[in-house]
Each structure stands twice: as C-alpha cells, then as structure tokens.
Design brief:
mainly beta
C-alpha cells in the first residue's frame, strides 16, 4: 500500500501499521465514527504473543498523514487456530460517550439559551468539545433533561426541534453541522469511470401528499388558551397525486414557526431519502490527493439509475481487504435532504423545459443549481 494510504493506529505512544483489513466509517447522521483494523499472521514460533492494546486506551487513526478519527479502543477481538492468529482492534470516536452515557447535568434545565450553549453544556460533562458549523439560533424557551435519557438523546431533541443536525470530526469533537461544509469534491463520480457498483431502492413509500405538525406549548400571561396549547402547521406536496397524510407530533415546547419549519423539512427530507443511493468507488482519494469525505458535495453522473446532479456524501466507509484492495463505500443524497432550515421554495417553483439527463428533474427544488 502507498504511504499516502497507509493506515496507522497511534496508541500509548506507539504507532501500529501493516493492517490487512480496514474499515473506518463516518456519517452525517452518526454521532460517532468507528473503526475496525485487523491483522493476521502465521504462528511465529512457540512464544509468539501479539502486542497487547488495552480496551479504553486513547487512539488516533490516520490514513497517511490525514487524521481521520480520535477516540478510544472499545474491543480487541482475537482468534487463532493451528495455522494463524487474527487480531482486531475496534473503537469509536470520543463522541461515543455521548451516545452511550446518560445526561448528567445538574441542574438539568435551561431557559432562554441558544441550542449551541445547551449542547456545549451537555457534551462538556464528558469532556467533549463542540464546534458550531451552523448559524446562531434563537434562544429556546425551555429544555429539560428527561429521566434516563442519554446525553445524545437530550442533544438530539434540541437539534430536531431546531432543525439542526450533528456529527463528529476527526479530532473527536461534536460538530453542529450544515450541509456541504466539507466542501466540494474535485472529481465527478461517474458510471464507467470511478464507480465500481451502485444501488438504490427509489422507495417513495415515505413520501406524502400532506404533512401536518401538531404540538403544544405552555401558556403565559400574554399567550394562553388554544393559541398557546394547540400549535399546528400543515403543508402539501402536489408531486404525490393521491391523498397520503403524515401527522407529526412535536415534543417539547413548540411554536407556530417551529411547526411550520418542521413540515417543510419533513417534505424535503422525505423526497431526499427516496433518492438516496449507495456506491462503491475505487480508492480513498481524489485525483488531487484529497480524501473523499462525508458532508462533501459531489457531481454524480449515473445514467443507469438516472442521476445527473449534485449530491451530498452522507456516509463513507474506507475499506481495505486482500480481495478488493482500497475501496470507499459511500451513501449519497440530494443536498437539500440535510438542510437544517429549509425554505419553502417548492411552492413557487416553475419547471424549466429543456434537455436533461437527470430522470428526476421534476422532483428538484426550485433553488437547485447544477
């Protein structure tokens, strides 16, 4: 393997390389990236004992000089028979503690603070730093930790209500993200060139003709009665010809503005999920030497499925095996699928007539730009 693609594991002041199998995964909708590295060798002799890497040790994983994961060892499987020994090291990002561990802030209630400040407080209990990659949000009326919920469950409630999402970065920090913040890919993904395989279900069962959001909020001296306790917003999608209604019950304190944004987001997200596709590409790097990364916008040309458009890489897994060499498995979706605060451009959309090789042009949002 070229040095630029050599995978190294730094732990306990030592660097380990020479792995025979590699899987390093990251994604927009995953709170913690993970890795599994494996090596197999013949018995070197009577006293052959593998180097011990202990569970819980802090690790850094690199591809060449590129840091791709900072976290901890979670497991060290070992298997052997009369011929060989197979040792694996598996771990996850530092942010895994937010997924696994409870929200323990005391007091566990915030009023009138921004989402970012509350997230930083919850994550800070586990020493996790927060990077804000989205615009500032208005203060939340109230957020209270619910009994028994994990740190990320509490964070996720905040982000869902505010139409934001989070992921992690190579340094093990929590990132309040915006779509495409990893930049634009230099290379195009194209059938017959760098796409080895592809698949998509084109499943539109999650797409509806109308989305309704219902919720409640506490009354105040200035806002009370039905106006305060019953909040509702609805939006239609006339791309679906028969009546299909989805009702969303908002949790927490809800306003009319939040309910409206939620149904807009639900409509965009549902269509985006229907156009999600999975691909395997050769190699881990683009022609300029940069790694393919999740949250990167890429031009996709796949006439077999019918795509000729910009897509967002939402998931990526760097894979190494003796059979296939270095490959990257990616999931792509329309960028608007992950918009944290989508506008309602669809209602003003006018279809443009013209030649296009994208079979789903009629489903593109009004502000789509090739």
């Amino acid at each position: 393997m070229n040095d630029v693609n050599k995978v190294s594991l730094s732990v306990g002041g030592h660097d380990y390389a020479g792995w025979k199998t590699v899987s390093i995964g990251a994604g927009l909708e995953r709170q913690a990236r993970d890795f599994t590295l494996g090596i197999t060798w013949l018995w070197p002799g009577r006293n052959g004992v593998p180097v011990r890497i202990r569970q819980g040790e802090a690790v850094e994983v690199r591809i060449g000089q590129d840091l791709v994961l900072t976290g901890y060892v979670f497991s060290t499987p070992i298997r052997y028979d009369a011929e060989s020994i197979t040792l694996s090291i598996a771990g996850r990002s530092c942010t895994a503690d937010l997924v696994d561990c409870g929200a323990v802030n005391k007091p566990g209630q915030w009023r009138g603070q921004s989402v970012q400040k509350i997230v930083a407080a919850i994550a800070g209990e586990y020493g996790i730093k927060v990077v804000n990659d989205s615009k500032a949000t208005a203060g939340i009326d109230d957020h209270t930790i619910e009994p028994g919920e994990t740190a990320f469950e509490s964070i996720d409630r905040l982000l869902t209500q505010s139409l934001l999402f989070s992921t992690d970065d190579a340094e093990g920090r929590l990132v309040i993200a915006s779509p495409g913040s990893a930049g634009r890919a230099v290379d195009t993904l194209e059938l017959g060139k760098n796409l080895l395989s592809g698949e998509t279900s084109l499943d539109f069962s999650g797409v509806f003709s109308e989305y309704v959001s219902k919720g409640q909020r506490s009354g105040t001296d200035d806002s009370f009665g039905a106006e305060a306790t019953e909040v509702e917003a609805r939006i239609a999608d006339d791309r679906v010809k028969r009546r299909r209604v989805k009702v969303i019950h908002q949790s927490g304190q809800t306003t009319t503005a939040i309910a409206r944004k939620r149904v807009e987001w639900e409509r965009q997200n549902a269509m985006g999920k229907a156009l999600t596709a999975n691909y395997t590409i050769q190699g881990w790097r683009q022609s300029n030497g940069e790694l393919w990364r999740h949250n990167m916008v890429v031009r996709l040309v796949d006439p077999l499925i019918g795509f000729d458009r910009d897509m967002l890489i939402s998931e990526i897994s760097y894979e190494l095996s003796e059979q296939d060499g270095t490959t990257a498995k990616i999931t792509v979706a329309p960028p608007e699928t992950f918009l944290p605060e989508p506008n309602d451009a669809y209602e003003k959309r006018k279809l443009k007539k013209g030649k296009s090789s994208d079979s789903f042009e009629y489903l593109l949002p009004a502000d789509y730009k090739p």
